[in-house]
Amino acid sequence: MYENFAFPERDKAVTGYHFSCENPSHVLCLIHGIGEHAGRYKRMARILAEKGIAIVSMDLRGHGISSGVRGDTAPRREVLADVDALIMRAKTLYPGLPITLYGHSMGGNIGLDYMMRGSKNYIPAKYIISAPWIKLVMSVPGPLLPLIRTAAKIAPKATISQNIDEKDLGNPDYVKPFKKDPLVHSRISLRCAVDGFDIGTAIYKGSHPDNGGAADKPFLLMHGDADKICDVEGSRRLAARLSQRENFTYVEWTGYCHEIHNGGKEDTGEAVIEKIGQFIVE
């Protein structure tokens, strides 16, 4: 259902995924979350393909079949350069077609960061951010964060567990086999954690640098109110700040868990994927 490809320009640090479709009219560049991989989005790709939407994605550094220490998606400047390469590959595969950048969870943190301070040479037509890491439900105690910062300077690639419970992700029929997936892991490096904390906190406070390159682009932000991993309050705070912005839409899904595209305890999440498709093609 997909083909993998290399990024020679990124020293093969990341591996790409191409979910093609017949008669494509739009392209989605997808950034996955912590501990998972782009191959977990096959169902989304199948549904969007019916709408003429192809997906070009990658396994982030330290994830899936990409190289690196598991969970070491850092330093952020290199990760943003990886997103540049992803968008360029989509442009090469589908010249002239509009590109939407989608990021989920930690990928949402990366996507927001890219939207605010990414290269102005690679600005997508639209943005979709799903359940972003802005504020965590289980926040790091204040006294512990300086210790993590110090440790990250000494051993930046050292990893800690991020303890994601499969039951908190979404409908078990679509989430499984998360824990049994050999490409899924439970690690995050210290420098990746610090990047995520700092950027999420800055976005929450409204102090993250913004070069304004994407200010006029359509932006869909979504979150489930039953998310036990990334606090919905982070998205609510961002949505309140952007409420007067033209082309901005915030959707909160009642009863949906962290992976809103995989629904809640009973919902399938297909309505979320339909919303994604509708937003892309409208």
TrEMBL record:
Keywords: Hydrolase
InterPro entries, alphabetized: AB_hydrolase_1, AB_hydrolase_fold, Hydrolase_4, MAG_DAG_Lipase
All copies of domain Serine aminopeptidase S33, residue ranges: 23-262
Signal peptide residues on this chain, from the entry's feature table: none
Any one Pfam family match given in the protein's UniProt record, by short name: Hydrolase_4
UniProt xrefs under PANTHER family: PHOSPHOLIPASE-RELATED (PTHR11614)
Protein's name according to its UniProt entry: Alpha/beta fold hydrolase
